[in-house]
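Hi V.,

Quick status before I head out on leave. The structure for the redesign project is tokenized and pasted below; the design run finished overnight.
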């Protein structure tokens, strides 16, 4: 009887995890900082190591709700043409604040709000005070970084032209 019970249990578990070839498994829920976000990349050359071919970037997620602005900056590394997450090598910093003016011509004033998977700085980084402007319905320029609603986090290829 024990052998039959074990077989039924294993068969049940296996059948629950099988996915038909024509089906795709459901995507995990979006992380909170990716919901309704614009994505942009900026170089994080301070993480580059001499003699190593990898290039480091910040993968930024920008959220705007009315005058409230949030910025999530996560370190990612480009190796052999592919982009990889690297929380252990720098983690992610969070900034929050407000937009002064409008998306047609305004400023985003953001204060450091914490970090995830990183060593907190001894003193909070200086607040960011950056120009913000909508370039098109799906593209926003914050400082010198272009953010797009059409971009996705963790693209297969490394950012170009940055």
């Amino acid at each position: 009887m024990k052998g039959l019970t074990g077989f039924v249990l294993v068969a049940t578990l296996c059948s629950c995890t099988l996915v038909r070839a024509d089906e795709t498994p459901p995507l995990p829920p979006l992380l909170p900082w990716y919901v309704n976000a614009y994505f942009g990349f900026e170089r994080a050359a301070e993480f580059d190591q001499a003699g190593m071919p990898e290039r480091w970037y910040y993968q930024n997620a920008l959220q705007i709700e009315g005058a409230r602005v949030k910025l999530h900056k996560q370190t990612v590394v480009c190796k052999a043409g592919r982009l990889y997450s690297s929380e252990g090598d720098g983690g992610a910093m969070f900034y929050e604040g407000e937009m002064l003016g409008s998306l047609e011509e305004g400023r985003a004033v953001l204060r450091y709000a914490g970090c995830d998977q990183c060593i907190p700085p001894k003193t909070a980084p200086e607040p960011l005070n950056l120009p913000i402007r909508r370039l098109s319905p799906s593209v926003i320029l914050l400082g010198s970084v272009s953010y797009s609603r059409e971009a996705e986090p963790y693209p297969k290829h490394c950012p170009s032209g940055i």
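Above is the designed sequence. The longest helix spans residues 2-17.

G. will cover questions while I'm gone.

Best,
W.
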